[in-house]
Amino acid sequence: MPTQKILSMALVGFLLAVLSGVLAIPPEHVTKVVLVTGLVLGLSLVSIAGEQSRASRFDKLDAQAYARRHPNHARDGKFSCQACNSQAIQERGILDAPEYKALMCAHCNHLLFYKR
Ligand SMILES: [Zn+2]
Prior knowledge:
Layout: H1 2-19, H2 30-60, H3 63-69, E1 74-75, E2 78-79, E3 89-93, E4 101-105, E5 111-115
Antiparallel strand pairs: 1-2, 3-4, 4-5
Helix pairs in contact: 1-2
């Protein structure tokens, strides 16, 4: 999600402002502010890392990888299912990765590959 990137950039900006003395935090709130900022920043970094590893997982299993692995099932730009040989391939959305589509066999539901 781009929101997390925006959020963590805002937080980094905020931290820089505090560190450079542009923003002053009352001494009694410093611990709280540091804790909350660190927590939110840590969480967004974790989710960014997760998003990237998920993206590379989808990118690794793309049409080219499928064609390389199963040359008999990718001829003349036509794909067929490696499991049941069907040519009925359906494109389905992925709920938590809307930028990708999963190409699945309409016959046996086997996942062929992902595309962006
Ligand atoms: Zn199939």
